[in-house]
Amino acid sequence: MKKALLNKLLYCLGAVAIGSTALPASSTALQISQSRSEQDLQCMELKDAQFELSFIHSVSLTPVIDKYQILETNNGFKIRQTEEVFLEHGQGLPSLTQEPDALSFELINGSFVLKMNREISNLIVRTDARFENKLRTGSKNINLNKWPDTGLRITPITSCH
Asked: Which residues pair with 67 in a beta bridge?
């Protein structure tokens, strides 16, 4: 009886471990839609399952780059923020090594670099033309301010087709 229970427990733990495994996605795209209406606006294929969001920080008025990776799990895709790069501290920007999900915080070539492992369950970008919001992947750029100032939902999908 005890052995049967132990086998069931090990089976369940193995299933949980397999279900939570996340690997870099092999083929993905990003669907950009309006967050409230859910109207699709544009789709962008990703070459290496990575992308960046850049903007001008509203307080420091200096550029910020947030870097992300798309991971594929048994339950679909996940977005992981891997880095935040900025020039000057301002309200809302990290300033300590104890930031949530932080791996390291360094000054590299005049830029502050927070390396992290932060899962983002629902990526919504609030755009404002004053802050030059852009999405970059490889050599492709999307000006996120080409739509009216709004909230944009960025969702990983298998393909734009």
From this structure: 52, 83
